[in-house]
Amino acid sequence: MSATTDPRPGLPAARRTDRVDRLTWGLAVANLVGQLAIIVTGGAVRLTGSGLGCSTWPMCEPGSFTPVFHEATTIHPYVEFGNRTMSGVLSVVAVALLWSVYRREPTASRPAALRRLAWWPLVGVLLQAVVGGLSVLWVLHPAIVGSHMLFSLALVAVSTYLLVRLRSADGPATPLIRGPWRVVPWVLTTVVTAVVVMGTVVTGSGPHSGDEDAAYRYALDPLLVTRLHAGTVWIFLTVVMLLGALLHRFRDEADLDRARRAWWTLVSVTVLEGVIGYTQYFTGLPELLVGLHMLASGLVVAAATWTCSSLYTRRAT
Question: Model-level pTM?
Fold first, then answer.
C-alpha cells in the first residue's frame, strides 16, 4: 500500500484504489445505482396499473415463469415482469459484490463488520422479492406495497453506507461534532425515516394503487396525510439547516470538509424533491411527476446516509 498521505481523514493511501479494489468499488457503485433503478421500475409498475400484470408469484402466470402472450395481452404483464427481472439483475450484482469483498478486497486487514455489511444487499434483495410476491398474493394491499418501497429505500441507505465504509479506514468511528450536538446525525436519521414512512402512507391513500381493479386504499383522508407528510418534510429541512449551521460553526475543522460536501448534496436533492412534491400536488398527481418524486426520495435517503456517515471519522488501525 502506498505510503503517501491521502487528504481524506483516516486514509493512509493517496488513491482510493490503494484502499479498495477497483472491481469491488465498481460493483458497489453498480449495486447502489441498481437499488435506485428498481425504485423507478417499481414505480412504473404502480403508476401504469401493472401491479397485477402477473397474476401470481413466483410464477408470472400459472405454469409459466414469463408473461404469456395472447391477443388480449396488454403492456401490464411486461411492465411487472420487467421489474421482477430487475430484482434478478440486482441479485447477480449483489452476489458478485459479496464475492469481491471476500476475495478481492484485502480482507486480512479489513474488519469482519465490513464483510458482514456486504451480505445485506443480497439478503435485502431476496427479502424484497418476497415482499413483492406478497403484494401480488395479497392483491396490492397498501401496507405491503408501502413496505415494498420502504425496503428499497433501506437498501439504498445500506448500499450508500457500504460505499462509505469501503473508502474509509478501519478504526472505530469517532464523531466530528463535539458536545451535545453529536446527536444531530441520529435526529436526522429519525426524521428522514419519518418522512419516507409518511410518504408511503400518502401514496397508499392516493389514486395510484397499482391496479384499477384492485384499488385498495388506506381509510384515511388523503389531504390530511399529505399535510402530515409535508410537516415531516419541513421538520427534516429544519434539522438539515441546523446541521448546516453547525458545520459553519466548526468551519475551521478540515476533517469536516467531506461532511460539508455531503451536506450541500443533501440540500440540493431535498430542494429538488420538495419542488417535485409540491408541483405534483398542485397538478393532480401526474404519473411522471410521481415517479420522479419516488426516484428523488431514494436520492434524499442516499444523501442523508452519506451526510450522517461523514460526521464521523475512522483512523487507520
Answer: 0.89
Tell me: the pLDDT tens digits for 64-97?
Answer: 889 887 665 688 889 999 999 999 999 999 999 9
CA–CA gap between residue 271 and residue 276 (Å, rounded): 9
- Structure confidence at residue 222 as a pLDDT band (50, 70, 90): confident
- Preceding peptide of 12 cis, ω within 30°: no
b/e sequence 244-273, b meaning 16+ C-beta within 10 Å: eebbeeeeeeebbebbbebbebbbebbeeb
Count the alpha carbons within 13 Å of 221 in the hemisphere toward its beta carbon.
4
